[in-house]
Amino acid sequence: MRFSYSIFLLSLLLVSYTSAAWSQNITSNATKRLIELDSLCDSQLKNDSLLKETIALAKQLKQYDIAVKQSANLIRFFNYETNTKHQGKSVITETKSLLPYVNDKELVGKYFFEVADLHYYLGEFEASLENYDSAFYYANNRSTSLQGLSKFGKGIVYVDKGEFGKASLALQEAITYFQADNDTLNWINAKNSMTILYGKNEFYNDETTERKELIDLALKYKNYPSLPSVYYNAAASANKMGNQKLRINYLKEALEVNKDSDYKEFFLPILKAGLVSAYADNDSLTKAEELLGDIEKNSNDISGFNESFYIDAKMRLAFMKKEYIEAKNYAERYLLLKKQSQEFEEIQQAERFLSRIYKKTGNSEKALEHFENYTALKDSILGVQRARILSYYQTLYETEKRDLKIQAQQSDIDLLAAKNKLKTQWLLFGGLSLVGLFAFISILRSRRFAKKEQKLQEELTQNIIASQEEERNRVAMELHDSVGQQLILLSRKAQNLNDETLKELTKQTLADVRSISHGLFPVVLKRLGFSAAVQDMVDNLDEESDVFFTTEIDPVDESLTEDKALHLYRIIQESLNNIVKHSEAKAVSVEIFKNEQEKVVLKIKDNGKGFDFNEKSQKSKSLGIKSIQERCKIICANLKITSVINEGTETKIVV
Questions:
Q1: Cα-flanking dihedrals φ and ψ of residue 547, to 5°?
Q2: Whose CB among 138, 174, 549, 561 lies 3.0–4.6 Å from 152's, allowing a Cys bridge?
C-alpha cells in the first residue's frame, strides 16, 4: 500500500511539473508573439485588426504600456484612416481603467492627445480642450514636442470656437515649444494656424505677409505634408476679399501640391468640394457638376468629417441652378451641422445664405429673420471684444518676431567679426607692421561698430517697450470707452426687459472687459498714485496665490515722474509674477523707500529656489529679465539682481 501511495504521489508531482512547464512555455510564446505584434503595429498603423489583436493580447498578459500605446494608435486609425470616428469612443471606454497601471507616463500623454484629436473632429470642443490639457500635463518635463502639440491643438479648437484671444495665446505658446524643440514641421503648422486666425479677423495684410513667409518656409522644407491646407485657407481669404480668380487659382494649386502630400486621401475630398463651391459661385456650372460627380463616386468623401464640405458645395450649386427649394434644404442641413460643431463663422455664412435663398423665393419675412441672425452674430459685442483682444496679442506677437530678427542680425554681426578675425590672422604672414596697423584699425572699428549696434538695439528695444505701452493704453481706453459703454447700455436694456440670462451674461462680459482693460493699463496708478497702486497690486497677488507677502512701502510719489512711475510699476509687476510662477517661494517682501541721497530704492526678496542670473540673462527666451533691464535703462535706474540656488533672489533698483 505504501509503495502504491508513493507511486501515486510521484505521478501527481510529474503531472504538476509538466503542467507548469507547459503553462510557462505558453506564456513565453505569447510574450514573443506580443513583441512581434507590437513591432508590426508601430510600422503598419493602417491595420485595425492587427491593432485590436495586439491590444487584446497585451491586456491578457497585463502589458499595460503596450495596450495603451496601441489603443492610442487605434483611435488615430479611426480618426484619420476611416470615416468611423465614433468607433474611437468605444476604445476610450475600454482603455480608461488601464491608465493608472501604465509605467511610461509619456505614453499616457500621447493617448490623451489622440483622444483630444478625436473629440475635435467629432465637434466635441470642450472634451477636446480637456484632453489636450491632460496630454500637456503628462508631457511636462517628458516631451517638449508633445507639450507644443497639445498647445497647438488647443489653439485650433479656440479658432473654430471663435475665441480668438485664447487661440492666439495657445498658438504662440505652441510656437515657443516647437522652436525650442527645433521642430520645423510643426512650427510651420502653427504659423499656418496664425494665418487662419488673421483671416478670420480680416487682418488681410498681416495674413498675406505671414502666409508668404509660410509658403517660402514650406517649400524650403520640401516635404511639407500640410501645404494643401495652406493654399485652401488662402482661397478662403481670397473669397472674403472678393477676389474669385485668386480663390480658384489657390484651390487648383492646393490640388496640385496635394499629389505629393502624406495626407492626400484626407485632403482630396475637401479640396474638391471647395473647388466645386468656387466654380458654382462663379457660374462655371459645367465644371462644378463634373467635379461634384467625381466626389460622389466615393461614399466616404461625402460623409463623416467631409459631409459639411460636400453639403456646402451642393447648396451653392443648387442655388446657382435656381433650384431654390433644394438649396434651402442643403443650407438648413449645413447650418445644423455647424451649430453642432459650434463653428461661428460658418454659422454666419449659413444664415446669410438662407437669407439670400428666401429673398429669391419672395419670402421677405424669412429672409429678414436669417439676415438679422447673420448680423447679430457678426456684430455681437463678444465678437468685437475678441477682435480687440486679438489685436492686442497680435502686437505682442509682432514684438516677439522683431526680437527674433534682432537676434538673427546679431548672429550675422558675430559671423562678420569671425571672418574679420580670420583675415587678420592671414595678414599676419604678410608683414607684422602692416598687420599691427590693420589690427589696431580693425579692433577700433569693431568696437565702434559693436557699440553702435548695441546702442541701436537698445534704442529699438526701448522703442518697442514704449510702443507696447502706448498700444496697451490705446486698447485699454477703447475697451473702456467704446465696448464698456455699449455693455453698460446693454445691461440697462436687459434690466428693462427683465432678461436674467442676458443680464448675467452682460455683467460677466463687462467684468471681463474691465479686467482686461485694467491689465492693459493700470488705472489705479493714476487714481491712487504709485505707492498705493503697488500696495494694491501686492494685496491682490496675496489673495490670489499661496505666497505670503510683506510690504514696507513709503510714499514716494513726489519723487517719481509719471513715466518713471509707470515703468517702475511694470518692473514690480514682472518681478512678482515671475516669483509666483517660477520661484516656488513661500514668502516675499517688498520695500520701497528713499535713501540718504533722496533716491527711490526698491527691494524685492523671496525665499524661492533661485537661479543662475548670468545664464538666465544671456538666454534669448528670458524676455522677462530683458524687459526689466531695458525699463531700468529707460528711467536711468541702477539694477542689481542677486540670486543663490535654493536660497532665494533679491532684486534691488535705485532710481
A1: -80, 140
A2: 174
Render 286-315 in DSSP notation, one character per residue.
HHHHHHHHHHTTSGGGGSGGGHHHHHHHHH
Q: How far apart are CA 200 and CA 277, in angstroms?
A: 19
* Geometric angle at alpha carbon 91, from 85 and 97, rounded to 5°: 150
**Pick from 254, 267, 185, 257: nearest CA to 218:** 185
Distance (Å, whole) CA 234 – CA 218: 14
In this predicted structure, the answer to whether residue 481 has a pLDDT above a threshold of 70 is no
Q: For residue 427, how many other CB atoms are within 10 A of its CB?
A: 17
Name the DSSP letter for residue 596. T
335-337-339 Cα angle (round to 5): 70
Place of cell 458645395: 313
**Phi first, then psi: what are they for 604, rounded to 5°?**
-125, 120
Q: How far is CA 250 from CA 7, 91, 235, in A?
A: 88, 39, 5
DSSP 548: E
Question: Whole-model pTM?
Answer: 0.46
Closest by alpha carbon to 648, among 617, 618, 604? 604
| Contact of 647 with 583, CB cutoff 8 Å | no
Residue 583 has pLDDT above 80, yes or no: yes
DSSP letter (8 states) at residue 635: T
Cβ neighbours around 620 below 10 Å, total: 12
Q: Which residues contact 592 (CB under 8 A, 6 or more apart)?
A: 531, 534, 552, 553, 554, 556, 600, 601, 602, 603
Determine phi and psi for 473, rounding to 5 degrees.
-65, -45
d(CA 25, CA 367) in angstroms, rounded, equals 75
> Looking at the chain, which residues constitute the CATH 3.30.565.10 domain(s)?
528-654
Produce one character per residue of 428-441: b if its CB has 16 or more CB atoms within 10 Å, e if not: eeeeeeebeebbee
Tens digit of pLDDT for each residue in 222-246?
Answer: 666 777 888 888 888 888 778 888 8
**Mean pLDDT calculated for residue range 265-290:** 88
Give the chain's radius of gyration (CA, Å). Answer: 32
Higher pLDDT, 488 or 586: 586
Query: For residues 343 and 304, is the Cβ–Cβ distance under 8 A?
Result: no
State the DSSP code for 78.
I
What is the C-alpha to C-alpha distance for residues 175 and 191, in angstroms, rounded to an integer? 8
Distance CA 577, CA 557 (A): 23
- The fold for domain 528-654 equals Heat Shock Protein 90 (3.30.565)
What percent of the chain has a predicted confidence (pLDDT) above 70?
A: 71
**pLDDT of 604 strictly over 90:** yes
Helix (H) or strand (E) holding 271: helix 264-281
Task: Strands of 117-183 (E only): list them.
Answer: none
Q: Which range is most confident: 47-56, 98-107, 399-408?
A: 98-107
Q: Half-sphere exposure of residue 537, counting CA atoms within 13 Å on the CB side?
A: 27
Q: What are phi and psi of 438, to 5 degrees?
A: -65, -35
